[in-house]
Amino acid sequence: MSPFMLGQYYRFQLTSLLSFVHRLTGIGLSIGTMLLAAWLITLAGGPETYGMFAKHLTAWYGQALLFCWSWALLYHLCNGIRHLGWDIGKGYELKTAYATGYAVVIVSLLLTAAVWAVAYAK
């Protein structure tokens, strides 16, 4: 699309962004599932193998990956619930679509913070 068309006819839409993020989190969850499988394989490999893997999960970059994976999971869950409403024909009004979109982002962030707070409290 030409820059003229983008500037004059296309306006940013939250629903488009949330749809794109839903697809990205789906890809991230697939990659995270491979990480989960690797964790289970090293766990079955014994204490030495698990110890080598666990040191990466407890490092800052491992914690960042786990945080992002947990947010992706909770965002995907919340947005999936939103889509279930659409499947039954509810929430198509523009005002409702935007309100539920913002709710998905906020609730997923709050749930992620709650999960991590509980994990660190133990």
Automatic annotation (TrEMBL):
GO terms for molecular function: electron transfer activity; metal ion binding. It is a multi-pass membrane protein. Gene3D superfamilies: Fumarate reductase/succinate dehydrogenase, transmembrane subunit (1.20.1300.10). Pfam families: Sdh_cyt. SUPFAM superfamilies: Fumarate reductase respiratory complex transmembrane subunits. One of its GO terms (biological process) is tricarboxylic acid cycle. Heme binds at H76. Keywords: Heme, Iron, Membrane, Metal-binding, Transmembrane, Transmembrane helix. PROSITE patterns: SDH_CYT_2. InterPro entries: SQR/QFR_C/D, Succ_DH_cyt_bsu_CS, Succ_DH_cytb556, SuccDH_FuR_B_TM-su. It is found in: Membrane. GO terms for cellular component: membrane. The chain crosses the membrane at residues 20-45, 57-77, 97-121. Its main location: membrane. Its cofactor is heme. The heme is bound between the two transmembrane subunits. Belongs to the cytochrome b560 family. Part of an enzyme complex containing four subunits: a flavoprotein, an iron-sulfur protein, plus two membrane-anchoring proteins, SdhC and SdhD. The complex can form homotrimers. Membrane-anchoring subunit of succinate dehydrogenase (SDH). This is Succinate dehydrogenase cytochrome b556 subunit. The gene is sdhC.
